[in-house]
Design brief:
alpha+beta, elongated, 7-stranded antiparallel sheet, 2 domains, 3-stranded antiparallel sheet, 14% strand, 17 helices
Length: 500
């Protein structure tokens, strides 16, 4: 059972999220539990398949707070800027401005409101983000790439809100009562746009679900009633008045968010701050850019729709990341079977393993250690680690992190390597899956012995790009090292994989 849940953990997470969220709402039993469904589902899944370690792995990204001031500034103020731009567009198109009642009359209550928005589980960030960004994002991104992961999460996130469309006291329900269920389309485009922003923040903050999930989500809920509505916190608390947002203003703001998300996607060439371009090319469909066209077309459709609505108020509102350690460490000089020349036509060359001789340790390498996976290897001193998801993925490269904007091919002499851990994955099945990929051509295959004495399989693969890969088992789990660009350092690094 545990193995089955692990293999289908992403699909089961989404299914369990809907069950835990929609059943209480439909049955009328503790409907506030609905907003906590994603986080509850995530904890259930990780506790089943990983126990205490799974729990720790899920919580750890929410303790990563170290990021640049720019990233923090965008997380806190980014939604406010988008709301103000949307408000400006709304006014230019002839709409009326909200009263800004909270800013004019209730400044003393805003800090208390911020605490409620951030810390109350039923208000969204805590109740949802352990699921959306904590559990789903890293797994979907490593499998399908950042853009596809954002589209998947954003779409499901929007549809997940469907019960709110039938709640007149909810801002979504009030707008739906005015313009109909067609509102689901622009609303879901808005959640996709926010998912794109949050994926970018997640990658730029080195996997901080605190910044990308809790902070951005809280900012969505915090700034909307302050900047877009006639909300009165005191009246809402007394139950005498519910906050309001004009449908036309709401739709205009959604349109601005979608356009901004498209600009971010195009600017980063779909990478959204994720530097693992080569793995993405191996997993994404060839037509990966096409969703942009759909988003652009739909955005302009409902920009026009927003302009046609009146501005009458009709609705209610509602620690440190893993680092590379390592002074220069002695590394056994790698001795592996030399790769066969790339043949004119694909062939498979299997070499017999040999017993490694005694090595003379060279200077100039440092150790990368993943404590979660229990795996170490040595990389050159001048290499940098650009992404770490402990226990799952680490990305190393021989060039400065900001050398490429994203998407372009590597220049001669540059190397990038992806170290991926596959817990509960059979190494034979993984090897067969890679070799049988219809989009890949295995140019050569060799069996090698690592300095630890462990056997590994070295593959040279052509898959819309040339790569060298090592598939082996370390610490009772499948481990893969995939390198692109200049292949000279590959064997020096791959041979050092060992249990720490």
């Amino acid at each position: 059972m545990t193995s089955f849940i692990n293999r289908h953990r992403i699909a089961l997470f989404f299914m369990l999220t809907f069950v835990l969220s929609w059943f209480p709402w439909y049955a009328g039993i503790a409907p506030e539990v609905m907003t906590m469904g994603p986080s509850i589902a995530a904890f259930i899944i990780v506790l089943i398949i990983g126990g205490r370690r799974g729990f720790v792995d899920l919580v750890r990204p929410f303790l990563r707070w170290r990021a640049s001031l720019g990233v923090w500034g965008i997380a806190v103020l980014g939604t406010a800027v988008l709301y103000l731009i949307g408000l400006g567009v709304h006014l230019i198109l002839g709409g009326e401005a909200p009263s800004f009642f909270m800013l004019r009359e209730e400044l003393n209550l805003i800090p208390l409101y911020l605490v409620v928005v951030v810390l109350m589980p039923w208000n969204g960030p805590i109740g949802e983000e352990f699921g959306w960004r904590g559990f789903a994002l890293s797994r979907l991104q490593s499998k399908f790439g950042p853009l596809a992961a954002s589209l998947i999460i954003g779409t499901i996130w929007g549809i997940w809100h469907l019960p709110s469309f039938f709640a007149p006291q909810d801002v979504i329900g009030a707008i739906t009562a005015t313009i109909g269920m067609g509102f689901l389309i622009p609303y879901t485009l808005g959640t996709i746009a926010n998912a794109i922003f949050m994926t970018w923040l997640y990658n730029k903050s080195k996997g901080s679900a605190l910044i990308a999930g809790i902070v951005w989500h809280a900012a969505i809920n915090f700034w909307a009633p302050i900047l877009l509505s006639d909300s009165s916190l005191a009246a809402a608390q007394e139950g005498t008045q519910l906050p309001t947002i004009a449908p036309a203003l709401y739709l205009t703001v959604l349109a601005v968010q979608v356009v901004a998300a498209i600009v971010l996607t195009i600017t980063t060439k779909g990478m959204l701050g994720y530097s693992d371009q080569q793995i993405l090319e191996k997993t994404k469909p060839a037509t990966w850019v096409s969703p942009n066209l759909l988003v652009i077309a739909t955005a302009f459709l409902f920009i026009g729709q927003a302009c046609s609505f009146s501005n009458e108020a009709v609705s209610t509102l509602e620690p440190p990341s893993t680092v590379v350690t390592g002074t220069s460490l002695a590394m056994p000089a790698p001795v592996t079977a030399q790769p066969s020349p790339v043949p004119a036509t694909p062939t498979t060359n299997v070499l017999e393993p040999t017993v490694p001789p005694v090595y003379t340790p060279p200077i100039g390498f440092k150790e990368y250690r993943d404590a979660d996976a229990g795996v170490s290897l040595f990389i050159p001193d001048n290499w940098v680690v650009t992404f770490v998801d402990p226990g799952r993925l680490a990305i190393f490269q021989s060039y400065p992190e900001d050398k490429y904007a994203g998407g372009e091919g590597l220049q001669p002499g540059d190397t990038k390597c992806d170290l991926t851990f596959w817990p509960d994955t059979d190494i034979a099945e993984l090897l067969q899956q890679w070799k049988s990929d219809p989009n890949a051509t295995v140019m050569s295959e060799q069996e090698v012995i690592l300095t630890s004495g462990q056997l590994g399989t070295r593959l040279e693969i052509e898959n819309r790009g040339h790569s060298l890969s090592l598939i082996t088992e370390v610490n009772n789990q499948a481990v893969t090292l995939v390198c692109f660009g200049e292949f000279a350092p590959f064997d020096d690094i791959a041979v050092t994989l060992h249990e720490n």
